[in-house]
Amino acid sequence: MSKLENSPIRIKSFQFACDIVLFTRSLKKQNEFELASQLLKSGTSIGANVREAQRGVSTKDFKNKFGIALKEADETKYWLELIEATSNNDCRILIAKCDELMKIMVSIIKNS
């Protein structure tokens, strides 16, 4: 097992994706299919791009993939804020986790 497989960003982004999957299931039960779909796509894309970045062929590729992951995280935060503003769902914990991921990714990009 490589050190990449145990990296905090990889673990946290995977757990966040799991949280998003579970949350979107509850949104679908509330008939919020469109918002659930948008959130599911962006929220699970973060971890997928983190994994791709960690297999980057160059520093430029690595930074580019993390940049994409960061953009997906920002989009995810938007959907979470929209859901919270338009429904009875409390998204504060997921928003905080998303903010944490974004801070980690910004640090990784800056230090690469």
TrEMBL record:
Upper taxonomic lineage: Bacteria, Pseudomonadati, Bacteroidota, Flavobacteriia, Flavobacteriales
Protein name: Four helix bundle protein
NCBIfam families per the UniProt record, alphabetical: four helix bundle protein (TIGR02436)
